[in-house]
């Protein structure tokens, strides 16, 4: 084993000694029997500089027993020795000497390092424990280091049972199951980012209410879809709106004294209520963000059509779901909208359910849960206010005939007309080269391909 370890790392490693501000050498064979985490990083790399203090803090917090079983080795991708020397001062672990450039390259090739930072964790017998060390530290901090010292990955999963949904990017905040299998729950408190699997939900008493994620591709009624929203936020910031008020056409502030949770786990449960004929026949879920230029361009258009439609029809409504970078931006942006907003921290529940692909996005759902449109933004650009009026009747729009379809965001590279109306042709050789039908008939030096008119299936993630 010692020979293999030396083949990987050479005869000696270096470490920075803060007390005398010097580097000292350590024989590699002193790491025999330890699990090792190879930290590929560089001083010039901003993501590395951001992550290194997080890793260093976690390493300092573990006890000497853990450190006797696990060590971290810095593999430098710095451009010069000065950068390496300066960077090593931030690290309480060992490093491959900067002079051993060939070995650093060999290790990068061996573990297929394409970008940094990367943290590859190996057992004492050189079996890979995890290649996702960066993610595991970000999730579990010193808990990840403890698991690695035991020869285990922090994250784990299991086989999905029949009809269980696999949340590929979901992780349980308690047991670290990833991908998360089966029912998934989220805290509605904006200061809390906890996600739980069903098993941990029954074991943990959480201080805030939790809501269950909707299962993608499973059909729910509109009321079931939005049942996870406690209250809506009006654009004028005048208190909250009870979610049920949208359906009963009785918009009034939400009481601050309501309690709709099961004490031992915080799950929301519906209260019995009088039968009410829903006023809303359909709703548009508008995913948008203040920082997004196409969103900034589309929102005022949608707002004008919305206000005009609402003067005659109360059966169609819109809710805003934010992808803003912070709550201040969210509040500024929603103040420009005449419709209510979903609380800032609940967007991901709906983005997961609708399998959101980009911004802006307007997904329209009828009261019985039928998807009327996944390309609502494009429909509004094509049909104007007619789109909202059609949805208010819980009906789908009829696609325009091919010769009337507007390619809203495309200009003809031949005659310059924008938008292209009717057939659109793209060059298979030239990049981003489009022609209207008239210019395409004049010919082009390369083969042209007729682009098919988009439909809702093109906006459905598989």
Automatic annotation (TrEMBL):
GO terms for molecular function: protein-disulfide reductase [NAD(P)H] activity; zinc ion binding. It comes from Adineta steineri. Residues 1-165, 232-393 form the Thioredoxin domain. It catalyses: [protein]-dithiol + NAD(+) = [protein]-disulfide + NADH + H(+); [protein]-dithiol + NADP(+) = [protein]-disulfide + NADPH + H(+). Belongs to the nucleoredoxin family. Keywords: Metal-binding, NAD, Oxidoreductase, Repeat, Zinc, Zinc-finger. This is protein-disulfide reductase. It is an enzyme of class 1 (oxidoreductase).
């Amino acid at each position: 084993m010692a020979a293999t370890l030396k083949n990987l790392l050479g005869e000696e490693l270096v470490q920075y000694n803060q007390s005398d501000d010097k580097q000292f050498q350590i024989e590699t064979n002193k790491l025999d029997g330890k699990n090792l985490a190879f930290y590929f990083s560089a001083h010039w790399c901003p993501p590395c500089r951001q992550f290194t203090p997080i890793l260093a803090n976690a390493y300092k917090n573990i006890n000497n027993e853990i450190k006797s079983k696990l060590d971290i080795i810095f593999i430098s991708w710095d451009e010069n020795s000065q950068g390496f020397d300066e960077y090593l001062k931030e690290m309480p672990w060992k490093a491959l000497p900067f002079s051993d450039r060939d070995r650093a390259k060999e290790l990068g090739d061996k573990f297929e390092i394409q970008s940094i930072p990367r943290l590859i964790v190996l057992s004492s017998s050189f079996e890979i424990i995890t290649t996702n060390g960066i993610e595991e530290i970000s999730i579990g901090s010193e808990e990840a280091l403890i698991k690695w010292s035991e020869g285990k990955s922090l994250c784990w999963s299991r086989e999905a049972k029949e009809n269980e949904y696999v949340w590929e990017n979901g992780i349980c905040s308690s047991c670290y199951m990833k991908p998360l299998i089966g029912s998934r729950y989220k805290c509605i408190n904006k200061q809390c980012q906890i996600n739980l699997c069903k098993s941990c939900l029954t074991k943990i008493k959480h201080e805030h209410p939790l809501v269950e994620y909707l299962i993608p591709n499973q059909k729910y009624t509109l009321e079931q879809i939005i049942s996870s929203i406690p209250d809506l936020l009006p654009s004028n910031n005048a208190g909250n709106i009870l979610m049920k008020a949208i359906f009963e056409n009785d918009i009034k502030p939400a009481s601050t004294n309501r309690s709709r949770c099961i004490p031992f786990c915080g799950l929301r449960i519906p209260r019995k209520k009088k039968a009410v004929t829903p006023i809303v026949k359909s709703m548009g879920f508008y995913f948008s963000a203040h920082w997004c230029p196409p969103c900034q361009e589309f929102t005022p258009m949608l707002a004008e059509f919305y206000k005009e439609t609402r003067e005659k029809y109360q059966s169609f409504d819109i809710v805003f779901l934010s992808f803003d970078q912070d709550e201040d931006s969210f509040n500024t942006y929603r103040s420009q909208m005449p419709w209510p907003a979903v609380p800032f921290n609940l967007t991901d529940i709906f983005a997961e359910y609708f399998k959101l692909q980009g911004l802006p996005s307007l997904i329209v759902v009828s009261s019985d849960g039928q998807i009327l449109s996944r390309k609502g933004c494009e429909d509004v650009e094509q049909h104007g206010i007619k789109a909202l009026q059609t949805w208010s009747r819980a009906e789908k729009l009829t696609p325009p005939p091919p010769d009337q379809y507007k390619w809203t965001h495309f200009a003809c590279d031949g005659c310059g007309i924008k938008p292209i109306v009717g057939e659109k042709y793209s060059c298979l050789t030239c990049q981003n080269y489009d022609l209207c039908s008239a210019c395409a008939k004049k010919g082009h030096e390369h083969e042209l391909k007729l682009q098919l008119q988009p439909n809702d299936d093109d906006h459905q993630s598989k």
